[in-house]
Amino acid sequence: MQSPPEQITFPQASADRPPEIIMLDVGGMKCAGCVKAVENQLIQHPGVISATVNLATEVAKVEVESSVELTDLATKLTEAGFPSQLRQSQQQLEPHPGSTTTSTAAGPVKSPVERQREETKRRYRRMAIATTLLLLSATGHLEHFSGVTIPGLSNIWFHWGLATVALVGPGREILVDGWRGLRRNAPNMNTLVGLGTLTAYLASFIALVVPGLGWECFFDEPVMLVGFILLGRTLEQQARGRAASALHSLIALQPTLARLIAPESADLLNQSAPSYTEIPASQVKVGEWLQVLPGEKIPVDGEVVAGQTTINEAMLTGEAMPVLKQPGDRVAAGSLNQSGAIALKATRTGADTTLAQIITLVEDAQTRKAPIQGLADTVAGYFTYGVMALSSLTFLFWYFIGIRLWPELLVHSGSVMGHAMDQAMNSAMELSQTTSPLLLSMKLAIAVLVIACPCALGLATPTAILVGSGIGAERGLLIRGGDILEKVHQLDTVVFDKTGTLTTGHPTVTDWVSLQPNLSHTDLLQIAATVESGARHPLAEAILQQARQQNLPLLPAQNFQTAPGQGVSARVTDQQVVLGTADWLEEQEIIVCNDVLVQTQACASAGKTVVFVAIDKTLAGWIAVQDTLRSDARETVAQLQQMGLQVKVITGAQSEAAAAIAQPLGLATEDILANVRPEGKAAAIAQLQAQGQRVAMVGDGINDAPALAQADIGISLHSGTDVAIETAGIVLMRDRLIDVVESIRLSKATFNKIQQNLFWAFAYNVLGIPVAAGILLPALGILLSPATAGAFMAFSSVSVVTNSLLLRSTFSTSESG
Questions:
Q1: 352, 364, 497, 739: which one is catalytic?
Q2: Residue 260 and residue 290: Cα distance in Å, rounded?
Q3: Residue 115 needs a FRET pair 20 to 30 A away by CA distance; which of 40, 100, 489, 550 works?
């Protein structure tokens, strides 16, 4: 019989403990420049301590002082052109599958899922119109390629009409948003595209109405630019949706309804259907009793009080095998009841349930940036200004200098890349066609505007984190953010706590020996169990379990005291009893003679932990307790070593007992750090760091929390204590030691994707902008038409998101290998 692990808990913000962390859903962001603008808007608001904005998830995480009026932040962003709202709890956002909105004082508030759904519909409509216009434009050129003439479609005024409809229809949002960004001194990707399309349209219109200038018309450029941009954004949005699918799946698991019953009705589960009241799951209170039928989701975290069933907990642990649940076992919200009707008592509800906390953790992880993103953020703040400056310089160079240096380009400019339709429109497919210096310079400047892609910079990190954290959530590996991923990538040492981490945490008593003639072995065990009843430690549980097996009742005791990692004491029947290590007893001025130490040496060498018992300052006996290694401990250590990581074990046990685990784990004796007290674990980690090592600490207990915090990366098993889980950067929900390997592999794979994405985003702009500016034109006669440049820009973002999605197949392949 298995019980789910203890729940994750997180520090809660309160009115008397500023600062407070809030989440905002932010719309209208198109690129990294928008992200920077939103962050600047938030940081400049009085009372805001810090702000982190994620382009992929469209979420802002803001740390504020308690005096800040939260709705003012959303209002400020909305007025700045980024429609925003405070994020509500998911239970409030979607109280029922058929309801997608809730109401606030300001009016109805739509859930992020509903807003994304509406935006997708609008995007598809705009893309459909743009595609139709593009097809009509292409059809108008059939006579130049196939000799087929369609009356009216080849007319230049018809193409003017197509370009006009493209700008006032599907392209209108691009132009309006670009102008707003420019007006509020925060130009974005739409500003660049808008400037490019408008310039191409106006130049063509002037050429149309003033034919004496000798300019060519290129009305296809605005049509193609709008079409390619919208197509790229639609594909990008779809890819981002797939990247966020794991989080959406978690959110969908949240139950909406609960069946409330009276406690006395629980006995009727197997006899008849008890009367119940159906209420929203978000309104269940701790202590209330609920009925759950087969096929239903568990509405809240609780404890089974009646009935027996099997529960599918794959949503929490990634394990598809159902788990048997009986009275006394714990169940988690969102898990699926499979086989029998049960009654449960609610222990955690609402935002306190394990599922809600996992969702919060994953959302937080997707918001936190990796430090490597800092360069991209810095560039993004000035990117659009730089591109506009480069575009202006491109125009000035070619108009005043370039054309005079290479006048032959005016004759051969007909061989530009992606310009076939424009040339066809003007009957200029022949290389002898002469191009106006102004038009050539303008086309190069437009190409620079539209090829630059700040969006790829903004998506490089968050999409990879989105996919990586989603994969982790599906497999029970909760990684807290991009900063954790980057640190994992730098690790070279992994340190394991022994008891409860490398071992099962369920030791058993193997020997107990009395050293006083008037004290029987049974009496020694009974007294020791009485003292240990005031402690919460695996060794204490082992001694208590042995006493229960011997049917030994606990004695009256008082004044319980615990020295973590050293021992416990209490007064038992007017005698002061002390249990602990030999060193700790000596600190209490209790002598542990050499004969006894020699006597216990064999137990210690066999990997057993020896607990000494003293009564009234006199050594009374000792108890040997042995814990077994987890079944996957050896494989875990071996795989970490294969990854090039150094593995060490830290424990408070004696050297002999600690060394006994070195051989089965394949570790050298010097890799075992023994006799380390709880307060010394953090110091031991710090010493390794002082030697230049990047250290991950794997633990599960209260004693491990300081070391988890000290380490570069803390990894906690989900069965561990709340404080250990809160301190750790990675939480292993499946409670399997081998998941230490999986979490490190996933972190490294995700970070590699971040590096690839950033390299591509920077390389694309570094190489693409010079080509668009005409660097290859003098030597090779190659330049990009504005439409081709726009297509490259649109698909650069798609490529970054698609590369992030490949992480799923890459990680699965490497895992199977």
A1: 497
A2: 5
A3: 40
Does 19 sit behind a cis peptide bond, omega within 30 degrees of 0 on the bond before it?
yes
3-class DSSP assignment, residue 760: helix
Cα end-to-end distance, the chain, whole Å: 33
Nearest alpha carbon to residue 524 among 542, 497, 510, 543? 543
Q: What is the mean pLDDT of the chain?
A: 81
Task: State whether residue 620 is helix, strand or coil.
Answer: strand
Report d(CA 781, CA 88) in Å as an integer.
57
Nearest to 656 by CA among 645, 669, 644: 669
Comparing CA positions, the residue from 746, 664, 740 lying closest to residue 696 is 740
Contact of 502 with 496, CB cutoff 8 Å: yes
Q: CA 518, CA 749: separation in Å to the nearest integer?
A: 64
**Residue 74 in contact with residue 28, Cβ under 8 Å?**
no
Contacts of 234 (CB under 8 A, 6+ apart): 123, 124, 127
Q: Where does 409-520 have alpha helices with state H?
A: 409-412, 420-425, 437-451, 454-474, 482-489
- Specify the pLDDT at position 655: 76
What tokens does 153 get?
A: 């479609």
What is the average pLDDT across 283-300?
90
CA distance readout (Å), 314 to 311, 319, 320, 734: 9, 5, 5, 9
Report CA-CA distances (Å) from 206 to 200, 201, 213, 222.
10, 9, 9, 15
Question: Is 259 a residue whose pLDDT tops 70?
Answer: yes
497 is catalytic: yes
Closest by CA to 611, choosing from 732, 551, 528, 536, is 528
- Find the mean pLDDT for residues 196-203: 87
- Cα gap 407→289, rounded to integer Å: 87
pLDDT digits (tens, 9 = 90+) for 404-417: 998 888 765 543 44
Three-class DSSP labels, 234-256 = HHHHHHHHHHCHHHHHHHHCCCC
376 has a pLDDT exceeding 80: no
Q: How far apart are CA 529 and CA 296, in angstroms?
A: 43
Mean pLDDT of all residues in 734-754:
91
CB 253 within 8 A of CB 355: yes
**Helix, strand or coil, per DSSP, at residue 542:** helix
Burial class for 179, CB neighbours closer than 10 Å (0-12, 13-18, 19+): middle
Cα(468)–Cα(461) distance, integer angstroms: 11
The one-letter amino acid at 770: P
Q: Of all helices (H) and strands (E), which one includes residue 611?
A: strand 609-615
| Greatest alpha-carbon span in the chain | 122
447: number of Cβ within 10 Å: 34
The answer to whether the Cα torsion of 706, 711, 713, 715 is positive or negative is negative
Give the pLDDT confidence score for residue 6 in this predicted structure.
42
Instruction: Confirm if 314 and 321 have CB atoms less than 8 A apart.
Output: no
- Evaluate whether 192 touches 179 at the Cβ level (below 8 Å): no
So what's the pLDDT on residue 3? 42
The distance from CA 634 to its chain's CA centroid, rounded to whole angstroms, is 29
What confidence score (pLDDT) does residue 103 get? 41
Strand 672-673 with 557-563, pairing: unpaired
Q: Which residues contact 131 (CB under 8 A, 6 or more apart)?
A: 227, 231
Distance from C-alpha of 580 to C-alpha of 588, rounded to nearest angstrom = 10
Contact 357, 418 (CB under 8 A): no
Contacts of 114 (CB under 8 A, 6+ apart): 100, 101
Task: Determine the average pLDDT of the residues in 39-67.
Answer: 87
- In the three-class reduction of DSSP (H, G, I as helix; E, B as strand; rest coil), residue 497 is classed as strand
Segment 10-25 mean pLDDT:
62
User: Per residue in 700-718, pLDDT tens?
Assistant: 766 788 888 899 999 988 7
User: Model confidence over 127-167: pLDDT tens digits?
Assistant: 888 888 888 887 766 655 555 666 667 788 888 999 899 99
Beta-bridge mates of residue 53: 60
